[in-house]
Amino acid sequence: MEIGLNHYLVLSTILFSIGLVGVMRRKNLLMLFFATEILLNSVNISFAAISHYYGDLTGQMFAFFVIAIAASEVAVGLGLLIVWHKKHNSIDLDTMSMMRG
Predict the structure, then answer these.
(1) 23, 29, 40, 46: which could form a disulfide with 12 (CB 3.0–4.6 Å)?
(2) Angle at 67 between CA 41 and CA 76, to 5 degrees
(3) Which domains, from first to last, does the chain contain?
């Protein structure tokens, strides 16, 4: 049995569903970042698989740019997370709903 495009797309769909549930259900900001990374990686899998299927490098280039954007998003997000934790001693999303200027 050969692994084809459908197998990669099913894997990507499962990972995207797990990431989407993680984004919608998490109360911890760090776990929200992890769920977002799962979402982005599932899209990368589908880009790379479709790109390989068609014999074109465009999808793989898009996946590379998504990885670069995800790395910068994590760097900025973790910086904000550290500042928030130092100020409030919690990374719970419920405490963020009471933000004051």
Answers:
(1) 46
(2) 105
(3) 12-89 (1.10.287.3510)
